[in-house]
Here is the input.
Amino acid sequence: MSTTMIDEITSLMQEMIRNRCVNPPGGEIKSIRTIDRYLSSLGVETEIFESAPDRGNILAVIKGSGERPSLMLGPGHVDVVPVENEDEWTVPPFEGVIQDGCIWGRGSMDMLYIVASQTVVFAHLHSEGFKPKGDLKLLVVADEEVGGELGANWMVRNHPEKVKVDFLVTEAGGDPIGPNQMSYIYGEKGTAWTRMRFKGEERHGSAPFRSKNAVVTMAKAIQKIREYQPPRDTSITKPFLKAMGLGGITRALLNQPRLLGFMLNQIAKSGKGNAGFIHSLSQMTWSPNVCQGGAKTNTIPGTAHLDIDVRILPGQDEEYVRAHFRKALGPLADEVEIDRLPSDEGGIFTAGSISSANSPLVEVMDSIVKELRGPEFTLVPLVSPGATDCRFFRKAWDTQAYGFAIHDGTIDLATLLGMFHGTDERVPIGTLELTAKGYMELAKRFLS
Ligand SMILES: [Zn+2]
Here is the structure.
């Protein structure tokens, strides 16, 4: 990786941090133009798609000969989440400060360093006259942080022939999840936030004999939800446990859906391993988090509602969710209305999606990580609990979509996780360098 490339990545990142594309409202066209100016200065032809005033996406393509599958760098998103309290930051969050070997700023980790690396790698491949055997595409988009309707999904719906792709690499991945272990992301869980409504008969609180109290019904429902065990599925935890290097017997037991509950309790007791993590990746989870009902101490409540954070595995849908809620509630189900949480309260249904944990692209990723970080390193397949733009591509074309980056290991996992949408977000220059090298090698090896 030449110093010129690192300088170019750094200055692109700084400019995008200073552009402040906080979503909402976004205003991403500023950073899209930043990317465009850079690419054009190196002779790359681009296409900009304005999806709304001040919003937009940019695409560049190096045509392949068609002998290999196509690969996309991206979709990378240039929008960022707001900063709640600027005073808590060590440096101002929208200045692109370089300090202690890191570039600091909102969006630096999520995901401007990846956008900048992918853009610079693409431009240099273009300048070198790289002749790929499959199409190489670079896509940078708006609006990921608020659902992608004007960004990735807009492109997939309005320009499917331009953004269709067999494989892609985008945000997340590279986290140091154990000694010599680094994650890559091959799928994501979905969300199906649910509201349960309960009915009672409103009357005076001084005469409760045989009253129908909506809050009491809600309490019974909460109890039933807590006691219910949704079906377990170990297909996602299997490759993860294998890569984590757990002992053969432990793994064999953990891989049996029927023994998983027992095993999780054992793990939780011994304090070894992360039972909560394995649990959430092996089943739909329910967490009843908000309950509302009753207005006055002297009135028996006629209505109540309960909001439940529901996270589903790839392949599970709202029908599945409701069927299991009804099963959990038993006869009580007749007294409960089960709906999606209203959309203005965040109740958008998002399906989970998944790519192959062991595709040819993953093999190339693995060999690159071993070369750049050391032969002792293993890549650990992870399914992310949150949504990314990958889901639109998996749904449209079954694209094999991965979160891939290479961290330099100077920031520990807990600090890293706290940075996403958090305070003091920053990226070590070393991570930026390794990640750019990784993309360069990935494109060359996969498409040659
Ligand atoms: Zn992101």
Notes: The longest helix spans residues 108-127. The domain at 191-345 is CATH 3.30.70.360 (Alpha-Beta Plaits).
